[in-house]
Amino acid sequence: MHTLLHIYGPFAIHSYGFMIALGLLLFMFLTRRDPRYTTLKLDAHFSMIIAVGIIAAILGGRLLFFASYPDQIESVMQFFAFHEGGFSILGAISAVVIALPFYLKTIGVPIIPLLDLFAIYGPLLQSISRIGCFLAGCCYGLPTAQPWGIIYTDATTVAPLNVCMHPTQLYSAALLMLIFAFQYFIGRSIFKHTGQLLSSYLFLVAAERFIVDFWRGDRIVDGLHISINQYVALAIMAAACIGFLASRMARKS
Hints:
Mean pLDDT: 90
Number of domains: 1
Radius of gyration: 19 Å
Strand content: 5-15%
Helix content: 55-70%
Shape: globular
Strand order of the largest sheet: 1-2
Low-confidence stretches: none
Number of strands: 4
């Protein structure tokens, strides 16, 4: 894991964690400035909502990562060794969408409208986080002879050294930034029904992962050359389509 600043012993500021923190701060800043934030009256609960979301994301991200790479975990305690890396974005998203509504219900915050709000700025957070992946060398690509391939030479990174590989982290970062641009500039205007922004977000980020995964060099595939993350992505895409149609039908009724 690439280190930006060593503090003491196992404590350090890593490039991966730094970029996630930067993305999260920007996510929170823009969310607070969105008109929907005022409409939902989130001031009294926002910090706790973010905290619950972070916990759910970390646990979900770790669970799907170790489900995808079971050989990476040697003990139960390693699950909680967050500083060692190992995280699945799709697992994090799924956990937040599943777990956060339970907390929102207890505090009386409308569930789908809030998730619609988060769906606008979520891709931006993910895009910036993928830059952290690029710096850390995780989520690396397959070997390539293309001129835009990258070569890692720093032994502290996760990627194989001295091999020219597809910069799949940057592919994801670029696509996620385009998804953010769509959600922010187009989705907010054309999607009027509650739940449609959430559905479009889930569909697009799952499609991004499904596509980019074909160039990932760290995935484990089955006989169809499909990884567990791609199966999860397909399931999320199907659920998103159902959710989108359900939101339209609910409005008409």
